[in-house]
Amino acid sequence: VQFRFLGILMAVAIRTKKPLDLHLAPWVWKQMCCIPLGAADLEEVDLLTYRSLQGILHLDNSVINEENFTVMIPLDSFVAHSADGTSVPVIPGGHNVPLTFSNRNDYVERALHYRLHEMDRQVAAVREGMSSIIPVPLLSLLTARQLEQLVCGLPEVSVEMLKKVVRYRDITDSHQLIGWLWQSLEEFTNEERVLFLRFVSGRSRLPSNLADITQKFQIIKVDRVSEFYSFVFNCT
């Protein structure tokens, strides 16, 4: 249920062009777009497991052979660690299937397949949730990066972007105060600019297409500065 609801939220973000601050593994976006996964995708998110599997697959035959394999390799059956660290069989009854020098290639193939597809049910539930709002089959026309940007917007908030989503009232962009504002924001880290964006607009991400922003934040000139604290009006 939770994953289906996540799919609904993601579809709403696409429809309303209100990005979500989500941080998902790159291969999840690929699966959402029905893009086949490979060993490189595991390497990107779990380098230790990837290297372990590659080490078993590409043994130095001058050092490890059929006789000393079980001594040199710290695995004795067809099991692997899942994403949460749990030891799981990669084939039915895998705990009782010994890992040997001769079947190591089959083990690596099975373990890799398990890791790449252990989230299939959850991804299917997310797609099901999205299908209630948007035509999910069209996602196969997108790249993983394009889908991520549609749902999450842009992770980086630059000063140039902020300049494109602001409007001025009783002051111009050439005013010295405005220059100071942009100069200060240039010195901010991206995380600090995200906080600024949240303060002035209530959002943490900008859509990938800035033309989708229908409500810009407004800078208003105030003469009696000493009587006011900084404030914003955030209407949704």
Automatic annotation (TrEMBL):
One family name in Pfam for this protein: HECT
Record-annotated HECT domain positions: 1-236
Catalytic machinery residues: C235 (glycyl thioester intermediate)
UniProt KW keywords: Transferase, Ubl conjugation pathway
Coiled-coil residue spans: none
Signal peptide: none
GO molecular function list: ubiquitin-protein transferase activity
Name assigned to this protein: HECT domain-containing protein
Organism per entry: Sinocyclocheilus rhinocerous
Lineage of source species: Eukaryota, Metazoa, Chordata, Craniata, Vertebrata
